[in-house]
Write a structure and sequence with these properties.
By secondary structure, this protein is mainly alpha-helical. Helix content is about 75%, strand content about 10%. A hairpin with a 4-residue loop joins strand 1 and strand 2.
Length: about 180
């Protein structure tokens, strides 16, 4: 378990956090709009299907209709729930991908060298001055000291931010 960042290191990561949050919020908003559109279409389709099932059930008789309708509605709810969960999972995976892409894009920003130096200092602070620190191919740094390893690559940090944003991401589904 890593120690909390010291205030100076924590402050140095503010631009990265701000950029990741802004990108995540923008991406989440776009993903949410798409999810809401899909949800509305799925609900409209489910309602049409439900209406057709009710009409068929009435023709077959009240007693049989109740049993058939109950079974079909349960299946429809399960199918709809499965579809919604699959869509949510797809959107979550896309959010993670976009956050990683946005984090890697920071390599080309004017602030990147300052961020990189801050990450090196943080790695040395956590692992000690004997730590071996190398640049990650995707931006950020990787560090090691003995058997201890530290991944401060930009994609890994973006993933950790998304992981810690679970409640915010979950709130997207409850609108």
């Amino acid at each position: 378990m890593s120690r909390p960042l010291p205030p100076i290191a924590d402050h140095a990561l503010d631009p990265v956090r701000d950029a990741l949050r802004a990108a995540a919020r923008a991406d989440a908003a776009a993903v949410l709009r798409g999810a809401e559109d899909r949800r509305d279409a799925m609900l409209a389709s489910a309602r049409r299907t439900g209406d057709e099932l009710v009409a068929d059930a009435r023709l077959e008789g009240e007693a049989e209709a109740t049993a058939v309708l109950t079974a079909r509605m349960a299946n429809s709810r399960r199918d709809a729930r499965r579809t919604v969960l699959a869509a949510q999972r797809e959107l979550y995976v896309e959010l993670r991908r976009r956050c990683r892409v946005a984090a890697v894009a920071l390599v080309g920003s004017p602030d990147y060298e300052r961020v990189r130096k801050s990450l090196v200092a943080h790695a040395e602070e956590l692992l000690g001055p004997e730590a071996t620190v190398t640049d990650s191919p995707d931006g950020g740094v990787l560090a090691s000291a003995g058997s201890r390893r530290l991944d401060l690559s930009l994609p890994a940090m973006a993933e950790r931010v998304v992981d810690r944003s679970g409640a915010e991401v979950a709130a997207l589904w409850s609108r």
